[in-house]
Amino acid sequence: MQALWVKWRTPRLPEPDGERSGELGEGKPLRLLILGDSAAAGVGVSHQDKALSGQLTRLLAPHYRLNWCLHAKSGMTTAQTLKFVQQAPNGVDVILISLGVNDLLSPIDVQRWLASTGALIGGLLEASPGAMVLLTPLPPLGNFPRFKQPLAGVLRRREARFNRALEQFCQEKAACQLLPLMLPLTPDALASDGFHPSAASYRLWAECASQAILARHLIEDTRPV
Question: pLDDT tens for residues 18-28?
């Protein structure tokens, strides 16, 4: 009942305007796919320029000739995103995934979620062999001001189980890397709904992802031939 009350009281913010694909930058070609839920879609800001896609592509543009695409929709679970695999572009170099929050807020258990995650990544890698897959940890929803006890405690325990399982999953998959992302819970870190990231948080997320991409490709460029 508490969860339903919070859902009813939380404002529904729209996905921002702006381009969801494009080309920019100079240098070595890099094909980027951003995939996921409302956070990947940029909910919480007014335009994609301020969202994850806009901020990440700007950070990568000085280093790469970037061809990028965003496939994201509010409310998407990991299982639902499996339907997008056939629509996703083939032959990409980096896949950044933001999924799990809607699974966490549903009755699904960790093992079913991991099975869907494995199936999703398997399909993506089949279409893009050799791609680098960056996974985003679930945010500490139980610490968000909008959630009160006892719901907050339930969310903290579920978030901890989901993130431990995701970390273990990434350790066992050579193509996958879990971003070391820890967004602050300061007033300016959340959007007006008290749930989605603000532009400042999207910036931190983009910086974390760009650093992982640059570090991975720096290692590959310096390997002896």
Answer: 999 999 998 99
98: nearest Cα among 166, 36, 178, 34: 36
Query: 47-98: per-residue pLDDT in tens?
Result: 999 999 999 999 999 999 999 999 999 999 999 999 887 777 889 999 999 9
18, 44, 197, 205 from 200: Cα distances, Å:
18, 11, 8, 9
What is the edge-to-edge ordering of all strands in the sheet holding 94-98?
Answer: 21-24, 64-72, 28-36, 94-98, 132-135, 176-178
Alpha helices in the chain (DSSP H): 2-9, 38-41, 52-60, 78-81, 101-104, 110-127, 151-172, 199-222
Residues 6 or more apart whose Cβ sits within 8 Å of residue 171? none
Radius of gyration of the chain from Cα atoms? 17
Distance set, CA 146 to CA 6, 142, 149, 150, 221 (Å): 8, 9, 10, 12, 45
Please give the Cα distance from 20 to 136 (Å, whole number): 20
Domains of the chain and CATH, by start: 26-220 (3.40.50.1110)
pLDDT class of 217 with cuts at 50, 70, 90? low
